[in-house]
Amino acid sequence: MGVALITPFKIDESIDYDALARLVEHQIKNGTDYLVVCGTTAETPTLTDQEKEDITSFVIQTNAGRLPIVLGVGGNNTKAIVEKLQTSDFKGVDAILSVTPYYNKPSQEGLYQHFAAIAKASKLPIILYNVPGRTGVNMSAETTIRLAKEFANIVAVKEASGNFPQIDDIIKNKPKDFMVISGDDGITFPLITLGAVGVISVIGNAFPREFSRMVRLALQGDYDNARQIHQHFNELIQLLFVEGNPAGVKSMLAVMGFIENKLRLPLVPNTITTYEKIRIVLNELNIKC
Q1: What are the distances in angstroms from CA 76 to CA 92, 128, 149, 261?
Q2: Active-site option among 52, 84, 129, 275
Q3: What is the pLDDT of residues 254-288, one digit of tens each?
Q4: In this structure, are residues 43 and 15 in contact, taking their beta carbons and an 8 Å threshold?
Q5: Is 105 a residue of the active site?
Q6: By the 8 A CB rule, do 239 and 277 touch?
Q7: Which positions ≥6 away from 212 have C-beta within 8 Å?
Q8: Coil, helix or strand for 201?
Q9: Sequence ranges of the domains in the chain
Q10: CB 3.0 to 4.6 Å from 2: which of 34, 58, 129, 250, for a disulfide?
Q11: Marked catalytic residue, from 52, 84, 158, 262
Q12: Peptide bond before 68: cis, by omega within 30 degrees of 0?
């Protein structure tokens, strides 16, 4: 289980590095396998380039080599990404996560050429990230498999399409060592039963111990116990995304006392109604807050 770290903000919208340090330690001490820095859940569209660099350096320093780090390096300007990969210092980073280009909606050939250019420029392993609900473009199973077969440093895909036939097709036809990672907490358990290797999680920000245990049990074939944890958190996971990510998980972490419930515009905190539902479900789950 990798965790897509949020970016905690203070009330004045500055980055709360004390809260970020607590969150990183929470992951390390409770079973998270790797940290994903500056992904979608981190509200990266609202961070400056300098803030992204500062957050990355801070997490690397706080982590102190205890967990692998995956860094979000993606966008819809291929040339700019290639330049970043060729000129940036990635010391302390173990792999990159690169999202499909958003807004300009490339064809499948455009997606292939985009990631081919990234693969040629990157000295680090690459995890593709397919999330059509956010980007407006779906990378087909055929394109994912083509990239996996042609570039040894493209090692995995984070699949957040929710398209089971497509994901199953990738699992069935991929190279042996290529990894399929769930991009949705709610369907991680069933995807592992199909052959996925784990998840890059949102709820793991709050519950790394419990959710990583579910992943490990499922990977070991202990489906009954894994299913119990999956069902235990099902209602909470649905509440996380009812008003968008990361508003839900920030509400949850605020209830638990980790962070201020603050986002940067255009994102806003959950409504009081959803916030209270999250608080009530947390109490019903008998989770200490």
Answers
A1: 25, 14, 23, 30
A2: 129
A3: 999 999 999 999 999 999 999 999 999 998 886 54
A4: no
A5: no
A6: yes
A7: 1, 30, 31, 32, 33, 204
A8: strand
A9: 2-220
A10: 34
A11: 158
A12: no
- Which one, of 240, 138, 128, lies nearest residue 186 by Cα? 240
CA angle (183 as vertex; 177, 189 as ends), nearest 5: 80
pLDDT bin (cut points 50, 70, 90) of residue 62 is very high
Active site residue 275: no
* The one-letter amino acid at 98: S
Residue in 102, 207, 6 with CA at minimum distance from that of residue 188: 207
Alpha-helical segments (H) within the chain: 17-29, 49-63, 78-87, 108-121, 132-135, 141-150, 164-173, 188-194, 208-219, 223-241, 247-255, 272-284
What would the pLDDT profile of 77-116 be if each residue is shown by its tens digit?
A: 999 999 999 999 999 999 999 999 999 999 999 999 999 9
Q: What is the pTM of this model?
A: 0.96
In order of 105, 159, 247, 253, the CA distances from 126 in angstroms are 21, 14, 28, 30
Q: Distance between terminal CA atoms of the chain?
A: 23
Neighbouring C-alpha atoms within 13 Å toward the C-beta of 253? 30
Question: Out of 3.20.20.70, 3.40.50.1700, 3.40.50.300, 2.60.40.1090, which CATH number does the structure's domain 2-220 have?
Answer: 3.20.20.70
- DSSP one-letter string for 139-172: --HHHHHHHHHH-TTEEEEEE-S--HHHHHHHHH
Q: DSSP characters for 102-126?
A: -SS---HHHHHHHHHHHHHH-SS-E
For residues 159, 163, 164 and 168, what is the CA-based torsion angle, rounded to 10 degrees?
-60
Report which of 93, 22, 9 is spatially closest to residue 51, judged by C-alpha positions.
9
